[in-house]
Write a structure and sequence with these properties.
The complex is a heterodimer of chains A (about 170) and B (about 550).
Chain A: H1 5-11, H2 18-21, H3 24-39, E1 62-67, E2 70-71, H4 78-82, E3 88-94, E4 101-109, H5 118-122, E5 128-130, E6 145-146, H6 148-151, E7 152-154, H7 159-168
Parallel strand pairs in A: 1-7
Antiparallel strand pairs in A: 1-2, 1-5, 3-4, 4-6
Chain B: E1 2-6, E2 9-13, H1 19-25, E3 49-52, E4 59-60, E5 71-73, H2 77-92, H3 108-116, E6 134-135, E7 140-142, H4 152-159, E8 166-169, E9 176-179, H5 192-196, E10 202-204, E11 217-222, E12 231-237, E13 240-246, H6 259-264, E14 279-282, E15 285-288, H7 291-305, E16 309-313, H8 319-333, E17 338-340, H9 362-368, H10 379-387, E18 393-397, H11 405-411, E19 416-421, H12 426-430, E20 433-436, E21 445-448, E22 453-457, H13 477-481, H14 499-509, H15 519-529, H16 538-541, E23 546-547
Parallel strand pairs in B: 1-5, 16-17, 16-18, 18-19, 19-20
Antiparallel strand pairs in B: 1-2, 3-4, 3-5, 6-7, 7-10, 8-9, 11-12, 12-13, 14-15, 14-20, 21-22, 22-23
The chains are: A alpha+beta (about 170), B alpha+beta (about 550).
Amino acid sequence: MPTNGETARQVRIKDLTLWQRTYIPEIVKGMVLTFKQILRPKFTRQYPEERWNPPSSFRGRPVLVEEEGVERCVACGLCARVCPALAIEVQGSETDLEKERYPIKFEINMLRCIFCGFCEEACPEEAIVMSDEYELVFTDPEKAIYGKDRLLMSADRLRPRLEFLRRAR
Amino acid sequence: MVTITLDGKQLEVDGKRTIIEAAREHGIEIPHFCWHPKLSVAGNCRICLVEVEKLPKLVIACATQVADGMVVHTNTPKVVNAREAVMEFLLINHPLDCPICDEAGECKLQDYAYKLSVGYSRFDENKVHKPKRVALGPHVMLDTERCIMCSRCVRFCEEIAHKPQLTFSQRGDHVELTTFPGEQLDNPYSMNTIDICPVGALTSRDFRFKARVWEMSATETVCPGCARGCNMYSWVRNNEILRQTPRFNPEVNEYWMCDAGRLGTFKHVNSDGRIKAPLMKKDAGVVEVGWDEAISRVVSEIRTFRKNFAAIGSAYATNEDNYLFQKFAREVLGTKHIDFMRHVVEGEQDDILLREDKTPNSLGAVEVGVRPKDGGLSFDGIVKAIKERQIKAMYIIDDNVAINPTVAAALQKLEFLVVNSSLENETTRLADVVLPSSTFAERHGTFTNFQGRVQRIRPSVATLEQDRALDGFAMSRLDAFGTPHDRWAKGVKRDARPTWRIIAAIASAMGTKYKYNTSEDVFNELASTVGSFKGMSYRKLGSWGMKLKAGVAVPA
């Protein structure tokens, strides 16, 4: 198949027959293809009325797993360290809970995030996982920085992903 | 001297050395937890096992003296196996706390687990649990589970701090580190136990959970807490000092520093009490003004009060600041009344590190010329002369002299007072013009300690006019890759300048050209004019500093 102008000019057939010059055979070929497609099943999804539910292996936006009202995270900072895009900022602090340490601040800059899932892989507590949410909209760079308020998600809601991770490990 | 063979290398070593010392002198590190170059040998961690030919069993390198003809192997399969076994034992009851532990990232056990361990555990049973979060003293937190019973902290308290406060109780895997009954770990050097703890058993209560160690940059600098001038690292994240740790210098502080210097010398750098902009007293009260306005006011006042000035240098300022200040005082202010205030707390001194003189640079101030000469008045004389209205104006750098009420009363009688200061204090409140000067953590320069050792300080916190990358600061990964849009790279930068630069600007505005671009330029001039600094340069001072030339007469 010629790809640039020069080669194309070389293989061009200049002398078409009268029958070919009417374009009728090409039109017929095209219409046959079109009518074939009409009879086949449709693939178009009526988004946003009809939404897609990703499989558990899908890497949506990273979230913090919440159990019994508390995040699992111990603010070890490994996700922030491994993040190739430096999207994550964690500030630890002390808590009376048994885990001793918790993130007083946990922010992910969704403009920096590249959905690679390294944070999830590095996490020793299975506290940050990739959710099934893929709709991210913001109108201001500041609003793209998600704090704990938007990152916490209950473990029940994340059950399929957590089970997927157990299977994959 | 004896000859030993270490891993096939012939070494000439002192016959009194142990194997681990001899190896270390020749750049070969034998793994160790309990051994420390400045502590007695305990020989309890067993990780330093090495094979010595003709000996039936492996021996510990820390407690075996070298002998002529000794042949030592540190990496034979037998040794490697033994180390793996020791690591396995140490890790049996060690909790998997690393994500929570402040030591993670600078932990010997963690490092050796990667280097010397097999990478998995055969231990299926339950670990022994012991108390966590035990406050051993005002500054040190103990996690008993993490302790590997190396006894470094116990020996430190006994041998270095001369305050036996720690000991072990119980036996076997129930051994616990505790303080003696009724005792606290509260000696003035208690936080050194945190540095020498090879695991996260002893951690700092002040720094607790503030940052992970790999997020910070470490800058080689010197503690300004007393005349000792302990060498230290300043650890900075997002332009804020989070902790300070001692840096080895055999001539000054070896491996140690005191708790007061470690905790008490950096918090003011980040405090709200910083002078944020040049301040000027006007009819409407004290107002913030621009640098140009403040400097032109100082210039016009100097023209008015020239020859009626007194100049107060500072033992807190660098040699460069003091040198340029006394030069400025003599050439521009036209005064010979130059001195500085001493801050000596009698009795607060010991044979370890602490000095009575609570300033880092009083010897340096004297040496570079901040002292009355040719009939100039001393500090007390200046205070008296103000009361008698013989001195009408004064320039003070980097010192809160008004902390003394007598001095404060005298300062009120001045017609004009200009102060360089980093912090708001009694003196700045009396001043007509305050010029914000940078703190020790934001300046290049040198201090001279009580031994006459000239040591470099380096900035770890950037001011408005500095850039971490362009000005050669120590950089963490976050500093290197952060942009102005990242919240974690937006640490406050303050509008402050080093005193020598402020003084050079005023002198230039007066028509006396002081052409210095860096503090190194000032230091080079100082080294060529002050005899005892002869031959010194920033490069030669290096990490450990140089001693002042003895016997060089201070120029009159």
